[in-house]
Amino acid sequence: EKVRVELMDCLSLIEAGMDFSGEDIEFIDADEAAKRLDGMSGQLRRLLNGSISYEAVVDLPAVGIAGAPNAGKSSLLNKLLGKERSIVSAQRKTTRDVLTGKMSLDSCECVLFDCAGLILEPQTIIDELAQTAAIEAIGNAAVILFCVDASKDTWAEDSAIRRLIRSDALIAAATKADLVAKDKIDNRLGDLKELFGFDFSAISSVKGDGIDVLKKRIETLLIKTSTVGDKAGSSEASHGVALTVRHKQVVTRAAGHISEAAVELRNGNEEVAAMLIRAAYQELGGIEHENVDERILENIFSRFCIGK
Question: What is the pLDDT of residues 118-161, one digit of tens each?
Fold first, then answer.
């Protein structure tokens, strides 16, 4: 998502330079744009080089992060893995795929996954497919991290979603605890225990509060309930990102488009470069029908005074 934002910014500046060449404004020169594209391509290639295959994690026990949309699951996954694996957004339902990474604990390893937020009433076919994938993945997990947004005032939706999770090996996490006043957090945890019937750990993915304790609880429950992965037998880097074949293909194609765009810019072919940047932008988002032209114009007119 970070690369997509940078691509849109760069594309907007290049398009502005072509479409508004009569304006007394220098939007971006070709060399600077090419250097920015080189950096984006490098980010994607580092992601590919640092990834691990699913074969490397298939025999490890799975720990699933589940809960309502926007319950802080993606931020928690990122914090536990120590890298940005998920999209983090204030918008509900921003995680579509089941996102996976390998996590190394003190005495064992596991596969940590964050899937689409469970939705009581899926509104689209995409929501339904995401819901099906989420329930299937959760059902196969050795341990479930059940996330509830501690900053909310009511948890009716969370309570209903809890009933969709059929697992006794459950750890309850009160996420976004940093948004609750310190003198109120104990009462909030008490309210959650009264509603759900089990203890919650206060977690702040932003500040890192409660993360070490949470890891220890995960490790203890894994040892109790499953055969854990031996750290000594691992040949790939711990905390690696597991990419599916489809994800690798998408990232590879996008990185290729971006590298080609940088070459075309240095050769003075701005229109070809813009076309390649568009292709990379859409590859990374998996988007077929997004109105890219509209987003480009919004980006331009929000930053420059043109035609006035």
Answer: 666 767 776 777 777 777 778 878 899 999 999 998 999 899 88
Q: 212: pLDDT confidence band, cut at 50, 70 and 90? A: very high
Q: Which domains does the chain have, with CATH numbers?
A: 1-50+239-304 (1.20.120.430), 62-226 (3.40.50.300)
Q: Using an 8 Å Cβ cutoff, are 100 and 57 in contact? A: yes
The pLDDT of residue 109 is: 82
Count of C-beta atoms within a 10 Å radius of residue 287:
12
Instruction: Spell out the residues 6+ positions from residue 204 whose beta carbon is closer than 8 angstroms to its own.
Output: 175, 176, 177, 178, 210
How far apart are the C-alpha atoms of 153 and 176, rounded to whole Å? 13
